Amino acid sequence: MQVFYTGAEWTSIRLQFQSNNSTIGLVPTMGALHEGHLDLVAQCIQQADISVVSIFVNPTQFNNPEDFEKYPSSLQEDLELLEKAGVDYVFVPEVKTMYPQETNLKFDFGPLERVLEGAFRPGHFNGVGIIVSKLFNMIQPNLAFFGQKDLQQVAIIKRLVNDLSFPIQLEIVPTRREEDGLALSSRNRRLNKSDREKALILYRSMVLAKKELLEGKSWLEVQKKIHQEFKKTEGVDLEYFELVEPDRFELSTEFSTLKKASLCVAAYVGEVRLIDNLPVIS
Ligand SMILES: Nc1ncnc2c1ncn2[C@@H]1O[C@H](COP(=O)(O)OP(=O)(O)OP(=O)(O)O)[C@@H](O)[C@H]1O
Ligand SMILES: CC(C)(CO)[C@@H](O)C(=O)[O-]
Ligand code: BAL
Question: What ipTM does this complex have?
Fold first, then answer.
């Protein structure tokens, strides 16, 4: 495994295998790696000839400075995990490499970004759009791997690839969960023992809501019940619990009209903001 730090280094590395039509797979991450990331990595190694993982905590996608400062980091362990997994290359750029000067670039993803993460984290998807475009331009992968855990991000990146005609095939990998259902997330490392227990409410509330929707209860009734459950849980603050059509990301008020539907949730558990989603009909 080779670690590289700049686009220029990658350009010269690529020359070695450019002539034999090898396919390049990219897994963009922000580090503090867990088994969920490793699922993306395993799929990348399986599907592409050359695997590249990027580790970069992208400042432009953080709307909350404290969230950025406290974002977990474990580069040495990450590199050991990636080496063991059989990754070929790891890109670990510095901020000045990705942003040699401050950017004023603005993406507008329209209705896709007006709700949920886009509404609660203003500027977040602009930052994601910028960094993912930069990574795509620098690495020029044939395939790129993203997790379903960030469902709205998946819709945004599909749109980005279409709008900018990136010649890249996107592969979406299902969410890896702990045995009790909690979605793996780098931010889980910031949970203390009691908050780790409380965090289960995200998954459990989606499982309950899915069951009730499939039994024929109305969405508004189900949503109200879940809001009440969250209110009863001290130390957990619900930001949203919504039903969406996962391609268009419009909030739904009526379950029975949907052909595809997912539940999406975001909540603060103590100081840590977590998100999750669950397909109801896929
Ligand atoms: N539990 C998971 N299962 C599958 N993929 C995941 C999981 N968690 C994250 N990913 C995916 O890994 C990629 C990198 O995500 P990122 O580095 O932000 O990790 P993260 O665990 O989502 O961190 P956080 O939730 O704290 O933002 C993204 O495409 C993300 O969707
Ligand atoms: C895609 C990504 C690596 C861009 O910084 C990030 O949003 C993430 O980890 O999901
Ligand atoms: N996985 C999403 C990246 C973020 O929370 O900024």
Answer: 0.98
Q: Between vectors from CA 104 to CA 101 and to CA 110, what angle results, nearest 5°?
A: 145
Q: Cα(3)–Cα(88) distance, rounded to whole angstroms? A: 9
* Ligand 3 atom 1 nearest Cα: 150
Lining ligand 3 with CB less than 6 A are 61, 150
Q: Helix crossing, 7-18 with 124-139: angle to 10°?
A: 40
For residue range 27-65, what is the model confidence (pLDDT) as tens digits?
A: 999 999 999 999 999 999 999 999 999 999 999 999 999
16 is in an annotated binding site: no
58 in contact with ligand 2, CB cutoff 6 A: yes
- Cα-to-centroid distance, 33 and ligand 2 (Å): 12
Q: Does residue 96 sit in the same domain as residue 229? A: no
Q: Is the pTM of the predicted complex or chain greater than 0.95?
A: yes
pLDDT given for residue 281 in this prediction:
96
Count Cβ atoms below 10 Å from residue 195 Cβ, excluding itself: 18
Q: What's the total number of domains in the chain?
A: 2
- Examine the domain organization and report whether 92 and 11 are in the same domain: yes
Query: Which is the closest atom of ligand 1 to the Cα of 187?
Result: 26
Distance (Å, whole) CA 139 – CA 88 = 13
Atom of ligand 3 nearest to the CA of 186: 1
Among candidate residues 147, 173, 199, the one where a domain is terminated: 173
Same domain, 82 and 138: yes
Q: Helix H segments across 58-150?
A: 65-69, 75-85, 95-98, 116-120, 124-139
Question: Active site includes 124?
Answer: no
One domain for residues 44 and 69: yes
- Which residues contact residue 251 at a Cβ distance below 8 angstroms, ignoring those fewer than 6 apart? 115, 242, 243, 244
